[in-house]
What we know:
The structure is a single chain. This protein is mostly helical and 190 residues long. The chain has 2 domains: 2-48; 51-186, Tetracycline Repressor, domain 2 (Orthogonal Bundle), CATH 1.10.357. Helices cover 71% and strands 0% of the residues. The chain contains 11 helices and no strands. The chain has helices at residues 11-23, 30-37, 41-48, 51-72, 78-95, 97-105, 107-115, 121-138, 148-163, 165-168, 177-186. Helix 4 packs across helix 5, helix 5 runs antiparallel to helix 8 and helix 9 (148-163) runs antiparallel to helix 11 (177-186). The longest helix has 22 residues, at 51-72. The mean pLDDT is 94. This is TetR family transcriptional regulator. Pfam families: TetR_C_36. Residues 77-187 form the QsdR TetR regulatory C-terminal domain. Keywords: DNA-binding, Transcription, Transcription regulation.
Amino acid sequence: MLASTDRKPDPLAAFRIARGWFLAGRRIEMGELATELGVNRATLFRWVGGRDELLAEILWSLAEPTLTAAIDASPGHGAERISHAVGRFATLIDQAGFFQEFLRREPERALRILTTRAGTVQSRLVAAIEQMLNDEISQGRLEPSLPPRDLAYLVVRIVESFLYADIITGEPLEITQAELAIAALLGHRS
Length: 190
């Protein structure tokens, strides 16, 4: 328990503890987190915002390095590289046990945080993919027919469609098909 140590609780400690709980498949309850930290709920909310904001930060802290690793490991250039990187990212996210546990435990909250303006994850992912598109465009390796921001948004929506299909439609989709759909959108033929 953090409250019993010499270290003074702070927002970063709150985030680290909550992230650890999330990775362990534990539901994050703000009252329990405040107790663990030895602070009141008002202080915790001032530090990290509400539960949804905290979950969004945790999710992005896990998604961003996963996306970076997928980009770094992707071969080729242009549409091939982008579709492979994003497809690999989607596969890794889909295989993460903590992520699947969160979707199973709190599907409506997960969709709200991950796929709407209520959370920051989607906008950050769109921005990261837009940067990747712009990098390929600036190198002359991609000539999209849509503006990069619009294209990045569509790529993210494709990923969401495959990642959350079972929640949205009740039918599981094969996540590996996301890469093919993105390649088609970008005009890449295997």
